[in-house]
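Sequence only, no structure available. Ideas?
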Amino acid sequence: MFFYLAKILWFIAQPSAALLLLLFAGLLLIGLGRVPFGGAAVLIATAGLLVCGFTQLGVLLLLPLEQRFPPPDLKGPVTGIIVLGGGIDQHNSRIRGGFALTDAGDRLTEAAILARRYPEARLVFTGGSADLQPDGTTEAGAAAGFFRAIGIADERIMLESASRDTAENARLTKAKVDPKPGETWLLVTSAWHMPRSVGCFRAAGWDVVPYPVDYRTYGWNQLGLLSARPSLGLTQVDLAVKEWIGLVAYRLAGRTDALFPAP
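Reply:
I predicted one. Tokens follow.
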């Protein structure tokens, strides 16, 4: 129920969609003769779109998430590498052929680099289908093909293909892997997604080593610049707001061990 409710609510609550719906509602009200209310709605929506699109509001919201967990200073052997889903489009990969990476494709490429660097480590990909109406294809299946294509042996690859969100990633992967005390498991996911991911794994009783990738910001000095592409600004705001809401919702539902997990 949590999965379906989150999907449906976010569809209309994401800032870009909410502002566009407000703009439409304002124009509709003006057309119906409710000019004061309609005009106010149009003004608010337009201002919101301009701020989100042209300023660095998205960067400001993303930076605390991305800076929360620094890259680890790895010493000693690595038992395994856990890769969270979200980096490959299973539908595009199946229909078009090849391996279609998403904006979060760094999750797979960096995991492949780590697998080469630590040849004894197991490689675990966790991710099923996040579709409201699954068609039987899973992200894990597409990811497995990608890892095999770049030369990673089948015996090193473990797949968890039933999870639909981050909390299920953590719970189902732990059950499948059954980690032992003293083992070192790296968690590879986007830097902006790392706080919630770590919180989910800790809540599942697994103290993983965060390995953030897929940074969407350059650093605090980026805040003085205007966004060169309004579409990018809106995307960053949507991404950041979703993650902050996710942190609150997951904590209230007991799916993470802290509101804003820290190192």
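The chain has two domains: 2-66+227-252, 80-213.
Hope that gets you unstuck.
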